[in-house]
Amino acid sequence: MLVRKHLKLKSKKTFSFYTHTDNKHKNYMKMRDEFKEQNTIRQKSDDKN
Fold it and tell me: Radius of gyration (Cα) for the chain, nearest Å?
């Protein structure tokens, strides 16, 4: 999302900064989703017991 808006910037430093933050955000979301899935699986296994 961030990257597309700032593609027009001529400075490569700012561009790499935005790509970096965007990637970090994606990784965070991915980790969060995986964490949620693990929690739901754990809850389901607890319900069975």
Answer: 18
**Structural contact between residues 22 and 28, judged by C-beta atoms closer than 8 angstroms:** no
pTM over 0.85: no
Residues in the chain: 49
Residue 35 CB contacts under 8 Å (≥ 6 apart), including other chains: none
State pLDDT tens for residues 19-36.
777 788 888 888 889 988
Query: Residues 34, 39, 45, 48: is their CA dihedral positive or negative?
Result: negative
- For 8, 23, 38, the CA distances from 15, given in Å and listed in that order, are 9, 12, 35
